[in-house]
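hey
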């Protein structure tokens, strides 16, 4: 099993199946993939749009690999940083996940993974700090969610679930 497949397994265990909650800004989702993401994927692949409830396992894997794993250069990140950044990309978008990573390793936080960010990640890895980097990303995500709820109380109903996910992630990276 590839590292991507291992990380995807973790993510999918937390995403669940089909959900259509009117309070969720993402709208209808299936396995964590929003209808708009699925529409974009199918149109780019030259296929007709269809309800996200009909997404299949190959499409799910393909979307996660293209839209999140590759976007954060998951194959260039050491364990468990790869999982922490990938999971963040799924919940916050790749740019925000990269910003978390850059802040955790002290790189310029421009939201783009380039040679300087990779060098900083590798330096921390060689220094034995990969678990600390991943833990810092989790901590930043907790703060992000708290600020989100402080700005928009309608999102408070999701806070427990977000924190549970981060608790699972913390155990996985330890």
């Amino acid at each position: 099993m590839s590292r991507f497949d291992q990380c995807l397994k973790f993510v999918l265990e937390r995403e669940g199946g089909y959900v259509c909650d009117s309070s969720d800004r993402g709208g209808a989702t299936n396995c964590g993939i929003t209808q708009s993401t699925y529409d974009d994927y199918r149109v780019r692949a030259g296929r007709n749009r269809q309800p996200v409830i009909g997404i299949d396992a190959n499409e799910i894997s393909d979307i996660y690999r293209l839209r999140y794993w590759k976007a954060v250069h998951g194959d260039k990140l050491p364990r468990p940083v790869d999982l922490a950044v990938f999971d963040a990309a799924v919940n916050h978008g790749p740019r925000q996940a990269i910003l978390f990573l850059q802040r955790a390793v002290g790189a310029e936080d421009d939201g783009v993974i380039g040679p300087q960010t990779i060098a900083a990640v590798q330096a921390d890895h060689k220094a034995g700090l990969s678990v600390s980097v991943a833990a810092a990303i989790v901590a930043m995500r907790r703060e992000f969610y708290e600020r989100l709820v402080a700005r928009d109380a309608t999102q408070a109903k999701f806070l427990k679930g977000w924190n549970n996910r981060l608790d699972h992630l913390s155990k996985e990276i330890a």
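The chain is about 65% helix and 5% strand. Residues 130-151 form the longest helix (22 residues).
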